[in-house]
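Dataset card, provenance and construction

Sequences and ligand SMILES were collected as paired inputs. For each pair, a complete structure of the chain with the small molecule in place was predicted and serialized as structure tokens. The example below shows a pair involving flavin mononucleotide. Curators did not alter the output after generation; any descriptive sentences attached to a record were derived from the structure itself.
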Amino acid sequence: MKSRLCEICSIRVPLFLGPMRLVSTAPLVAAFCQAGGLGCLASAGLSEKRFRLEVEEIRKQTSSPFAVNIAWTTPGAQKVMAWCLAESIGVVISSAGCPEAGLSRLKEKGLTVLQVVANVDQARNAEGLGVDGVITKGYESGGLNARQAVASLPLIPMVADAVSIPVIAAGGIADGRGVAAALALGAEGVLMGTRFLASQECPIHPNYKEAILRGSDTDTIDAQFQRFSVRLWKNPTALNLSGEEPLWEAMADFSRGDDAINKVWSVGQVAGLITRCPSVQEIFEDIITGFREASSRLQKISSLST
Ligand SMILES: Cc1cc2nc3c(=O)[nH]c(=O)nc-3n(C[C@H](O)[C@H](O)[C@H](O)COP(=O)(O)O)c2cc1C
């Protein structure tokens, strides 16, 4: 499995770890890079000191490149950009908008910028501003989504038709079949978040992982607010949220086991497909095997029809 993203991002396999606030930190990022993909450190919620410690720890555990996320609506995003430049980070996953000034500064300094987009206009705009690739974030995804989010199945080919830079598909993908489908739709890489919440190296309390392993296709809800929506694990707290402020107050601390039941936490629809919690390396091996099986199934179907 190769695409031009392997060269652009200096990786062996075009798989990307979704930045997840206070989850995509050194243990998970380094394991993902070691398996051959591009790990991404989530900067949201990190102090400068913690950011530098995480970067140092990742570099101790792997000599492979990794990315950092700048979520532009997060307080301190400009500071994170300065930290990335000071630490000579090679790749930025830019999300929650794409300010022209920030982008040109990153590009001037030679960084590779991958922009998260929710629709075709955003993808065209990002390409026009000079990003190196776009990440289509479908409605199925964990994390914050656009108010009028589009599902991955229509979003990936529409964006692939609209831009000539590489497209990375995110949202609703957790195995080799999903990766094969995304590549068939025109993506050249795949970014996953939820799949790696249930991995050995993911630094969250086991109660969250167990909930995901028990979860089904209908265990998440799309909670809509004035400026965005967020996909949450379905529990009484999530079902009774009354607004944006109560949402932030009710957010779980991923290190606390009781929060998995009593507070709100984000996870993608694809949780229903996840039944095991192996190491990151094993998940990569399963994905590659599943991708090959899906490809040969399609080849068989194609040869029957000729
Ligand atoms: C718990 C959690 C936290 C997230 N935090 C962030 C974040 O800080 N920044 C960001 O750009 N995306 C964030 N996301 C979105 C992921 O990076 C990724 O786009 C998404 O998980 C992909 O969809 P999937 O969950 O179906 O794989 C988060 C997702 C989850 C599940």
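Derived descriptions for this record:
The two ends are 26 Å apart (CA to CA).
The pocket of flavin mononucleotide is lined by residues 18-21, 23, 42, 44, 69, 71, 95, 116, 137, 140-143, 170-172, 191-195, 266-268, 270 (CB under 6 Å).
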